[in-house]
């Protein structure tokens, strides 16, 4: 049974569900940042996915990347699967800009998160739901 890691749950807002993955918005207004988490139990590494699920994961990651570039066409997209703190498999999709708070360095550990205000978060979630053809509340 799939359970989202509590740290991911606490740091993110739900965008919705794709066929394999849950799409989450990192609640940090400094960096536009989506996270894909496959809804499968006990998956830590990409190699834990079946060939079919791996292909689906890649397809969904590409769709998220395209959606982010539609919303932020001037961004340099950073895509990474890190697991040093949260071992549950998840892929970060971060839009970077040469004037963001951590540029040109990595975003992790640079600055404390600045949560979105509720209206801004809701608007961004809806925008990504539209881009990804996710029904609200899925």
UniProtKB/TrEMBL annotation:
Alphabetical keyword list: Hydrolase
Name the UniProt record assigns to this protein: Diadenosine tetraphosphate (Ap4A) hydrolase
Coiled-coil spans in chain: none
Tagged with keyword Signal: no
Presence of the UniProt keyword Acetylation in the record: no
InterPro entries tied to this protein: HIT-like (IPR011146), HIT-like_sf (IPR036265), HIT_Hint (IPR026026)
Residue ranges of every copy of the HIT domain listed in the record: 1-103
Any one GO molecular-function label of the UniProt entry: hydrolase activity
